[in-house]
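Thread amino acids onto this structure.
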């Protein structure tokens, strides 16, 4: 069995933390924040997401979620039509009627999110006021919150950030004499949450809570004695909201791959005074399983050159994982927003000469990608098919958000998401035997 890759950073090394970043502004190719509803509606089991938008918004969510017509998901769209746009109907009254019918039909709803869209923002529909009014009407049975899923100035993962930030003011405060607590922030697949919880219990931290919780009545208490650690790198607004209540962030790499996950748990343990030897003992078996899974995939990826278009904000942690644990070469690591504080530990682990870009000017990035001819390109759906037609191998960035990829047990699956397109390309380009 291959040895687990240790976390090595030379003394005084900053990786690419001080490297120049190419900042670009121009045409973008990203999904909007409404996409986050696809995983959030599965995570918070008694919540409902009501998009206030156009038929295009409804089609996007329905297509992205893959929900069949006879299913009853926990999301819907209140359609803004011509009467609303022309000012012939009072949009607030219309919304009140839609919400009343929804709550009458769906008695299981405990939290209702009014989700703004590009159309609702263009016509200046005040969903904040609507949420306050409807909450006053339907509490204590249902709490109504609002956030923006508009894609006018954001990338698609910021939908989750906006949703969780809207939850923070409603979280309970811990009791005055409550001991220090830990909150893991970021929506994770239930199976990963359960795996993490088992490891926390073995470390001696049985009371760890997650934001978002699976039910509205199980949301964590947050106050001055709360420590939190991010599980996703795209939660800047949520982090600010938590810190406004006195919570303190535990700095760590993100739990992607064996190395990142081990460092993530080690950072938590250090913050709570748990010995490093205990962390080594508790994580030894899952780290060994992760290392064995990665060893099987590494031959397919080692030495391959990868180019990241800015899309999900997962690009920097993924680049660290692929370069350090699988031997890939980083051509360019583009990300929509580079949060230096939250990504400091990740940047310190990347090679000093890593090409980093922030923001997007898609035409210039396409030119650089074509000039470099990488072995694989991570990009959005809008770019993938054209690049495939040009002979490049691509990986859909959005699949990395939809798939369970965090933690030790998923490290091999994460690596496979990059190896599979390369294998497919090899099969398509290998001549058939006569």
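Threaded sequence (434 positions):
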């Amino acid at each position: 069995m291959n040895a687990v890759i240790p976390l090595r950073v030379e003394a005084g090394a900053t990786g690419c933390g001080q490297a120049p970043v190419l900042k670009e502004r121009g045409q973008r190719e990203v999904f909007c924040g409404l996409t986050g509803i696809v995983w959030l509606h599965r995570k918070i089991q008694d919540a409902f997401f009501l998009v206030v938008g156009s038929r295009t918004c409804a089609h996007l969510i329905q297509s992205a979620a893959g929900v069949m017509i006879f299913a009853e998901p926990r999301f819907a769209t209140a359609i803004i039509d011509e009467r609303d746009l022309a000012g012939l109907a009072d949009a607030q009254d219309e919304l009140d009627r839609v919400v009343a019918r929804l709550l009458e039909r769906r008695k299981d709803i405990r939290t209702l999110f009014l989700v703004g869209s590009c159309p609702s923002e263009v016509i200046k529909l005040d969903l904040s006021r609507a949420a306050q009014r409807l909450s006053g009407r339907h509490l204590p049975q249902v709490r109504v919150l609002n956030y923006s899923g508009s894609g006018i100035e954001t990338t698609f993962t910021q939908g989750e950030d906006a949703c969780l930030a809207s939850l923070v003011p409603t979280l309970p405060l811990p009791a005055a004499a409550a001991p220090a607590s830990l909150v893991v922030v970021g929506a994770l697949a239930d199976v990963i949450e359960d795996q993490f919880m088992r490891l926390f219990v073995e470390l001696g931290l049985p009371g760890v809570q997650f934001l978002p919780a699976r039910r509205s009545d199980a949301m964590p208490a947050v106050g001055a004695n709360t420590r939190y650690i991010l599980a996703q790198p795209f939660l800047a607004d949520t982090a600010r909201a938590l810190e406004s209540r006195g919570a303190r962030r535990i700095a760590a790499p993100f739990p992607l791959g064996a190395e990142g996950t081990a460092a993530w748990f080690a950072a938590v343990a250090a913050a709570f005074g748990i010995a490093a030897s205990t962390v080594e003992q508790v994580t030894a078996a899952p780290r060994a399983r992760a290392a064995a899974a990665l060893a099987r995939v590494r031959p397919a990826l080692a030495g391959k050159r990868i180019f990241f278009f800015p899309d999900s904000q997962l690009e920097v942690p993924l680049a660290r994982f692929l370069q350090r644990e699988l031997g890939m070469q980083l051509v360019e690591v583009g990300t929509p927003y580079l949060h230096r504080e939250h990504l400091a530990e990740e940047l310190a682990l990347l090679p000093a000469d890593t090409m980093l870009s922030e923001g997007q000017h898609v035409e210039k990035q396409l030119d650089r990608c074509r000039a470099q001819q990488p072995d694989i390109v991570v990009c959005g759906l809008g770019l993938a098919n054209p690049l495939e037609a040009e002979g490049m191998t691509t990986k859909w960035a959005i699949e990395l958000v939809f798939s369970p990829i965090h933690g030790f047990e998923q490290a091999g699956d994460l690596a496979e998401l990059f190896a599979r397109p390369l294998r497919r390309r090899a099969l398509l380009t290998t001549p058939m035997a006569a």
